[in-house]
Amino acid sequence: MNLIAPSLLSANFLNLEADIExxxxxxxxxxxxxxxxxRFVPNISFGIxxxxxxxxxxxxxxxxxxxxVEPEKYFEAFAKAGADIITFHYEACNHIHRAVQQIKxxxxxxxxxxxxxxxxxxLEDILSDLDVVLLMSVNPGFGGQQFIERTYEKIKKxxxxxxxxxxxxxxxxxxxxxxxNAKAKNAKALFEAGxxxxxxxxxxxxxxxxxxxxxxxxxxx
Length: 221
Ligand code: DX5
Ligand code: ZN
Hints:
Mean pLDDT: 96
Bound molecules: D-xylitol-5-phosphate, zinc ion
Low-confidence stretches: none
Number of domains: 1
Order of helices and strands: EHEHEHEHEEHEHEHH
Radius of gyration: 16 Å
Shape: globular
Distance between the termini: 16 Å
CATH topology: TIM Barrel
Number of strands: 8
Helix content: 25-40%
């Protein structure tokens, strides 16, 4: 699957509506919403009221990436705000199995996020319960960082694990994803390595033609 999830972290917060409408009209598949608490990551972004506002205009699923400590305390609030997918960090939760069931009980999709240093093998016994595995290809906290090349190996290993277990989790990659026109082009190679969903913040919103970039990321045009 070749899905694109533009990250609104890099959108224009003074006119979020215009950027949401652009994504609605584009070939993008999901809205990626980065929630940061200043504790799990060294940055603070936006929270529940903003996700609720985005939901009013978004015509595609909201993929809410929680970079917060004690994420399980907020699943219900983000589901009520309109999240269609909630992903939370392996490194921020001691009871992954319970947390995944909590999200699913809210009637939405559940995913686990791995930081660059966390091996995919930690998911071996939970993989078949997951709708999404999000692999961080930068250290979480900021947009516009450099892609970590080691991510390709992680995607390939995870793809093997998913195939072996006949699991259906989508592989999502987040951080430093770019198009063929950029210096660090990698979207095509990431899909070829086995990724299903690519998140892109700066590549989309800091470009002169965001809709065209979304098309390039998705179809390698
Ligand atoms: C980083 C966030 C990413 C970020 C990606 O902590 O999880 O979603 O917005 O931004 P780019 O694509 O600019 O690396
Ligand atoms: Zn993210």
